[in-house]
Amino acid sequence: MLKQRIVTAAVLLTAIVWALFLAAPWVWGVLSLVLFAAAGWEWGALLGRAGPVGGDGGAGEGADASAGSRAAIGVTAAVTVAGLAWLAWRGGFELGAGTDGTGPWLAALLVVDLLLWLGLALPAVLAAKPRGDHPAFATVAIFCLWVAVLELRLIHPVLVLSAMAIVWFADVGAYFVGRAVGRRKLAVRVSPNKSWEGAWGGLATVLVIAALAWWAWPDAPVLSNLLASRAGLSLAALALTAIVALSIVGDLYESLLKR
């Protein structure tokens, strides 16, 4: 399991680094849209298969698979069309353009996405019961996240990599700390292998690495440095804690759909 994770991460990281730093900005937009559309396919399939299975035996299984395929196609198509429309409307892709001309729209999209997670995904995890399990939720959530990583790329490619690294470091820290000292279950009805110790270990990993980045390279364009310079160290730590918490909710929500 660990070897598979390492190999997958290495391959994806190579492609991401190439698209971020060596290719034109629009290449990152297209490549990331493909990756997010693939995520939409998987999410849509999970949502379709999570619905009620009609009857017994093969007929029910066939209907279940058909529902999963329809949901997967719907989410993937909607994310792709919305993404292409945003690329066409976005216009120029000059590095450093940031959110020029798109700021209000981007802010609105991210607020909507956050409210969806807090209003649908978080209650579902707490109740250990899928809620808001509709393809429209998956479509909006994935599209908003894709827009965010595209716009971060236009500000600076390191911002994208550092934003994703927060989730990676949290996941790696949680994995190793959880395996080593994990005792108290975090959400046993959703994901029995996750522990509170692992969650705290993931958060500690992120905060320590962010502190080292601030100490060693305070001017580096990484997300944690940007938060610290604009909001102060305390608020930056709170923001990183919130990001890690949301990443854990997302992980648990995925586990909930799979089960």
Write the layout of secondary structure elements.
Layout: H1 2-22, H2 25-49, H3 57-90, H4 103-127, H5 135-155, H6 157-181, E1 185-187, E2 191-195, H7 196-216, H8 223-231, H9 233-258
Antiparallel strand pairs: 1-2
Helix pairs in contact: 1-6, 2-3, 2-5, 3-5, 4-5, 4-9, 5-6, 6-7, 6-9, 7-9, 8-9
Walk across the major sheet and give the strand order: 1-2
Low-confidence stretches: 52-60
Q: How far from one another are the termini?
A: 19 Å
Q: Which strand-content bin applies to the residues?
A: under 5%
Total of DSSP H or I helical runs spanning 4+ residues: 9
Class by helix and strand content?
mainly alpha
Description:
- With 259 residues, the protein is mainly alpha-helical.
- Helices cover 80% and strands 3% of the residues.
- It contains 9 helices and 2 strands.
- It has a two-stranded antiparallel sheet.
- Helix 1 runs antiparallel to helix 6 and helix 4 packs across helix 9.
- It is globular and about 50 Å long.
